[in-house]
Each structure stands twice: as structure tokens, then as C-alpha cells.
Amino acid sequence: MRDRWTAGQVAEALGGTLVAGDPLAEGPSEAVVDSRKATGGSLFFGVAGEKVDGGAFAQAALSQGAWGVVTTAVHSQGLEVPEGGVVIAVDDPVAALAQMAARWRDEIGCAVIAVTGSTGKTSTKDTIAGMLAGARRTVATHENFNTEIGLPLTILGAPAETEVLVLEMAMRGEGQIAELARIARPDVGVVVNVGPVHLELLGSVEAVARAKAELIGGLAEDSVAVVPGDEPLLEPYLRSDLRIVRFGPGGEITELPEGLELPFASAHMRSNALAALAAVRALGVEPHGRIEVELSQMRGQRLLLKENVVVINDCYNANPMSMNAALDDLAQSASGRSVAVLGDMRELGADQRRFHAELGAHVREMGIDVLVTVGDLAGLAGPPFGGEDLHLLPDAAAAAELIGSLIEPGDTVLIKGSRGVGLEVVADALCEALPPAAGGDF
């Protein structure tokens, strides 16, 4: 932004009023919503959260050298503005952030691939970025910057020379993906899958499909929609003015091309790779050779520890679909004992008890050797599992204390649950008990 916009142009892009600062001053280099990360080139947005109004930290951001702040008229009053500092007042900082991101997306004029789905959207986004590497100057969503705040920050963080933006889109209710699509205006929309997630708010899988399909609805005429070949719930939302590309069973893209090497072998990850392949082909890119994919943290990374113990750290989130896929992968990939440390799956609504009981049955069917459940809901998986090596624990702290004594040389350990369970402490405890082997990431 610094090379393209002045302070006055930034205020115009935000739909705000320049309260302080030279309108001809060089623009900012980045946008942030955390005042602690505000530095010399930062434009701080004082976003109101559930507990704290970020506008109250506008002075702190300016005092530590931020380029400028965006806040409401109330919070813009009485600020001590350092020489060269900028203050822009807006009615709604979140709406202003979205408006500025949409303008910057138009300014740089790059192609946009948007990815959503009930599970696997992050790894699909990461795989798309890997397939584009070397062929296009690409910026992809970092970690979980996939909301009404994170997505605009990703766009605003893209350099002017960016050729492709790969944006992950998350939702918790209807209308949210539609809003993200309005900001991003994607050229390619990927719906990885539809499954039972956020049922507490949406009520049914059909409603989940409708919410995910908002991405398809947000595509302009002649854009590309990439969808699973075997998902009938998306069919009502496929439009005749779009180019539809189906992947997987029942689709046009069913196999990865010969010679394309990916750093994973599990069935669900390779299915995600088919969606990624369809997306990059839509931009005229044909990936080949070894593709390096940097998976986002806590989303299926494998780590080799001492004594040949493998940890699969997949504890960022969980739902019935992703749990079953991860357990399938565990059963297929374990060379020694298979150990599943499973936490509660949250936001599943009225059927949550049934989903957890079915999880236990699936653990049994896949022949998993050891099951550790964490939380009251996860504990419902215990009786259907019925195995001798079953451990029902109340919380992640108890699991972290126990895990080191359970593991034997050669074990493969899956750690997975909803984010609120906090199972990362279990992975940390295991890595402390058995430090990573040299070159342990794979």
C-alpha cells in the first residue's frame, strides 16, 4: 500500500475522515488489529471485540510508532498524535477494513482463489499455494485468518505485485461466506466438502450446504466453481453461467497426474489435492514434480520423535467427518501400535451424543489399539470402542500428564479434538517426554 496510496487515499478507501495527518503523506505498509504489533508502517484498526473495544488502544498504537490508527469518532478525540502520525475516523472499523481490502484487491488486480468446506479447507489452501509456488507470485491465508477480520488483513498484506491470492473462508452461520466473497470477489471458488459442522447454529447438514454454497453464489459470470463430484447437496446451487469442475468420485478430475509428488499419502489429503489441482488448472497452471506443502500448524503435521514414535498433531479442530478421516489415516499409516487421543467435538447440536458414540464405533472398526478420550462428550466414545486399552480423562491437562507413560516405541499417536479442548498441551507433553528426532518433520 505504501507505494500506491497516500494517507488521503487511504481515508477515502476506508470511507472515513482524516482527523489528523498530512493527506499527501506516504501510505502504510500493513494493517493490524493488535496494537501490540503496531510498528512504524502499521495502520491499526481499533476493532471492537466481545470483551474489549480495540479503539481504546489507539493511543497505545500511536505511542509505539504506528503509522496511523482507524477508529470511531469517539475514540479519535483527544489523541496525542506524534509528528507524522495519522488518525482516520470511521463509523465501523470492521466495515471500513472490509471496504479497504476490497479496494486493494481491485488495485492490485490479481486472480483470487477462495476455499471453503466443512473440513480440509486449510490443507487444501496450503496445497493450492504449494502447487502455485514458482509459477505465480502467490499470497495465501496465514493460519486461520479466514474470518471477516482475517480475510481483509490477508488481502491488505498482499504486495502490489501479487499475481494470485489464495483465501480461506470460514463461517459459523448463514451470510458470512457471502460477505467474504463480496470482499474478495474470487475468480475460482472451491467447496472442498459438506459435513456436519456448526449444527448447533445451522441445524442441519442441508443448511451447512446452503451456507457453503454462498461462495458459489458470490462468483461472477464465467468464473470457475470447483466442487466434489459426489455431493448432491451442492447441486441446487450450481449455476449455468459458471464453469463447473468436479473432483473425486463422479467428477472429471479423479486422479493426480503421473509424476506429481505430494508430501502426504492419506486418502482425504489426496482428495483435497484433487480440489487444489482443479483450482490451479483454472488459472492455467499445471503443477509437476515434487510439490512442497507447508501445512498450517496443528492441522495434521507429522513429527517423528525418538524411539520411532510418530505424532500426528491435528488438534486445531474436529467434526465427525474430519475425525473419521484422521482415524482412517491413523489405521493405515501406523507401523506399530495406533493410539488415538480424541477430544470433544463441539457445536454439533442436538445429535452431539450420537456423533460421539458413533466415533467410538469407528475407532473400534478401524482397529485402533489405544483410545484416550478427553472431555465428557468424547467419553461417550468409550463404551462403543470397548477395547481393553481405554482411558477416559476429564481434560487436556490430565491427558498431558498421562500420555508419556502410555506410549511405547514405534507407536503412532493421533491427537485431535475441537479447538476449545486445548489438546496442543498433550502434543507438547509428548514432545517433551520424547524429543523430536533429527529431521523429525515429515
TrEMBL record:
InterPro entries named among the record's database cross-references: Mur-like_cat_sf, Mur_ligase_C, Mur_ligase_C_dom_sf, Mur_ligase_cen, Mur_ligase_N, MurCDEF_CellWall_CoF430Synth, MurE/MurF_N, UDP-N-AcMur_synth
Occurrences of domain Mur ligase C-terminal (ranges): 302-419
Domain Mur ligase N-terminal catalytic intervals: 33-104
Domain spans labelled Mur ligase central: 115-252
Sorted UniProt keywords: ATP-binding, Cell cycle, Cell division, Cell shape, Cell wall biogenesis/degradation, Cytoplasm, Ligase, Nucleotide-binding, Peptidoglycan synthesis
GO molecular function terms noted in the UniProt entry: ATP binding; UDP-N-acetylmuramoyl-tripeptide-D-alanyl-D-alanine ligase activity
GO biological process annotation, one example: cell division
PANTHER family xref list: UDP-N-ACETYLMURAMOYL-TRIPEPTIDE--D-ALANYL-D-ALANINE LIGASE (PTHR43024:SF1)
Designated name of the protein: UDP-MurNAc-pentapeptide synthetase
Native organism: freshwater metagenome
High-level lineage: unclassified sequences, metagenomes, ecological metagenomes
